[in-house]
Amino acid sequence: MKEIKPQALGSLVLRLALGVMFLAHAGQKFFVFTLPGTAAFFASLGLPGFLAYPVFAAELLGGIALLLGFRTRLVAAALLPVLIGASGAHLGNGWAFTSPHGGWEYPVFLALTDLVLVLIGGGAFALTPSRDAD
Asked: Sign of torsion, CA 57 125 14 20?
């Protein structure tokens, strides 16, 4: 049996954590705020409201792809603009995410962890493993 390197396990943990986070945010948009409510929130930020729908789809499909380890680097790179956009939406609220309406620390941290996943790949047990994951 082939030994799994600690780096590959670390990448797996990061990939699963981000996948769950994206699914949770997609679920929040769908079940809690509703998609029309999310579109209204986007519009209140000065963004086109219809962007809520592709963002929801990206979070849902991207989260599933990350959990499976399907094209991890590509999927993480495609999700990076979503996290940068979320960071921008929270920029005026202060640093701490516990600030009213949430600060920018959490979305910026998520964007950086997503960037790390772009750089290191899917790690262990990925459906489409990176060539340099071992």
From this structure: positive
Alpha helix stretches (DSSP H) within 6-102: 6-27, 35-44, 52-68, 72-90
In whole angstroms, give the CA distance from residue 29 to residue 56: 7
> What tokens does 28 get?
């929040």
pTM, to two decimals: 0.93
List, for residues 75-105, the tens digit of each pLDDT value: 999 999 999 999 999 999 999 988 888 899 9
User: SS3 letters for 104-115?
Assistant: CHHHHHHHHHHH
Amino acid at 11: S
The residue count for the chain? 134
Report helix, strand or coil for 133.
coil
Report helix angle 72-90 to 105-120, nearest 10.
160
DSSP class of 76: H
List, in order, residues 6 or more apart from 65 with CB less than 8 Å away.
19, 71, 72, 75
Give me the amino acid identity at 134.
D
